[in-house]
Amino acid sequence: xxxxxxxxxxxxxxxxxxxxxxxxxxxxxxxxxxxxxxxxxxxxxxxxxxxxxxxxxxxxxxxxxxxxxxxxxxxxxxxxxxxxxxxxxxxxxxxxxxxxxxxxxxxxxxxxxxxxxxxxxxxxxxxxxxxxxxxxxxxxxxxxxxxxxxxxxxxxxxxxxxxxxxxxxxxxxxxxxxxxxxxxxxxxxxxxxxxxxxxxxxxxxxxxxxxxxxxxxxxxxxxxxxxxxxxxxxxxxxxxxxxxxxxxxxxxxxxxxxxxxxxxxxxxxxxxxxxxxxxxxxxxxxxxxxxxxxxxxxxxxxxxxxxxxxxxxxxxxxxxxxxxx
Length: 325
Prior knowledge:
This protein is α+β, with helices and mostly antiparallel strands. It has helices at 2-14, 174-181, 247-254, 293-298; strands at 41-46, 49-56, 61-64, 73-76, 89-99, 112-116, 130-132, 143-148, 165-172, 190-193, 210-215, 218-227, 238-242, 261-262, 319-323.
């Protein structure tokens, strides 16, 4: 009885942890993000350079794309890729878990989990995102925000100092997306977003980063930046791994300290909610989708956050796992 009460209290105390961005309160007129706007955004580095994004989902796990691996170091609380980031922390990667059915040719099941070398402490600049639960629905037109440090267009890098970029794109249903990109290329494990006229998208270097939508005061991750044909081209939406399809896979692999899964539904309404208005008709910085495929081929409503009372022991080695459902 006492243990059940403790768990209940823990759930209630942590219910508001995921998907909260206290510093994300402005009307957007450009693409540069203010510090702390997307506190779950992660930057994956290899050989000292950013190459992919990710999202913090609890105090020791980061969600990313399978084609982004391996990442040797993860940065959280970062805004710029050059210069000083007063609020950032970094961690090595202790364990990599790749979906066993990931197909680098089709990009199906493009999802992976990174366990950090030690836990992180939440603050206004570092917080977990909520994840879309398995019964979530994101109909066509759902406003979705994409973020990253990727190219500003194909082959053109984000200019110094490399400020985190953001833009809003609407969801495109899979039937229409398959018509645009080629029948069968978009599986039920994927979702699409973009403008018919193009101009806003993700691109090289944005892979693995989150696509989120707001419900009431919570930001819920619907997708993981995965692939696309070019960047921000007309009639060519970006394709994202559909997070809601992987609730069981994520839960089974994390085991304890589960992230917050929230059901997103267009029927849900709130009397007040934060919103972003975009006057920029230009672009987000296209995020890579499929940028590192060949590399890998060759190689909360509730959040259940329980901070361990044990100290994590630093590991020099990194575990690499391939797991299915």
